[in-house]
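pls design
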């Protein structure tokens, strides 16, 4: 499907879902695992829940490395990030940021630390010599010592395969960017390019989506939501430039 047609479809999908809420045990929210092979370690899927479409990519860390990139006070569009990071197979927006385009929360890029870590709020995606994980900041206030890459945002949506965001009053609909980890250790990146879902509905949906999600973290969304998947030439453009992204690179052969 051409990008323009896809974006129009997703935009309309978002409009249709605004007044609908997903109950925690709503089996109609369950989707079929139908991943399409793109290249070794990388699969794509269009996941539909009710009238909302998520562009998703599932990444096997056996084949790929993850790096955070940050340009303080100098945000870029997805097209500019593609030019900045020509070797990346996937690019997605990361931390929230302030009006001066400084990241909120902690960001670690190649061992260099930026921002002020969240405490008792949100979660952290981190990479270290011990592996890759998504941690709840209520349990771990910072990325583990020795982390080489990390991004922080809020709220946590799923932990131990259970919904963790239970604010039923939060019904705001927005574009969403999500990073998740499944039971096999794969990293799943998901975006809704239209109006999307509320955070509450998203939290309730993800554990029942048939994706075996163990943990999931909401990243900056709204006008910041962006995604680029080079092997499949998939692009979701943001409304605003962003100063921080998470990029995914094929591992160098030993």
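designed seq:
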């Amino acid at each position: 499907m051409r990008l323009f047609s896809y974006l129009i479809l997703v935009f309309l999908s978002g409009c249709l879902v605004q007044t609908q809420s997903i109950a925690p045990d709503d089996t109609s929210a369950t989707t079929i695992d139908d991943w399409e092979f793109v290249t070794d370690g990388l699969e794509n899927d269009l996941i539909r829940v009710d009238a909302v479409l998520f562009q998703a990519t599932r990444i096997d860390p056996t084949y790929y490395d993850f790096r955070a990139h940050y340009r303080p006070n100098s945000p870029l569009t997805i097209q500019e990030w593609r030019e900045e990071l020509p070797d990346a197979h996937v690019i997605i927006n990361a931390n929230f940021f302030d009006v001066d385009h400084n990241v909120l929360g902690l960001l670690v890029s190649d061992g260099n630390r930026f921002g002020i870590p969240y405490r008792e709020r949100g979660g952290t995606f981190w990479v270290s010599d011990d592996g890759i994980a998504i941690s709840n900041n209520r349990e771990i206030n910072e990325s583990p010592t020795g982390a080489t890459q990390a991004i922080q945002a809020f709220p946590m949506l799923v932990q131990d395969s259970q919904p963790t965001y239970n604010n039923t009053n939060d019904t705001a609909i927005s574009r969403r960017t999500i990073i998740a980890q499944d039971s096999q250790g794969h990293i799943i990146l998901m975006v809704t390019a239209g109006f999307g879902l509320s955070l509450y509905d998203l939290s309730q949906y993800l554990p029942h989506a048939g994706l075996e999600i163990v943990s999931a973290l909401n990243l900056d969304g709204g006008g910041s939501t962006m995604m680029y998947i080079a092997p499949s030439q998939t692009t979701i453009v943001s409304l605003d430039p962003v100063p921080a992204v998470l990029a995914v690179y094929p591992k160098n052969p030993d």
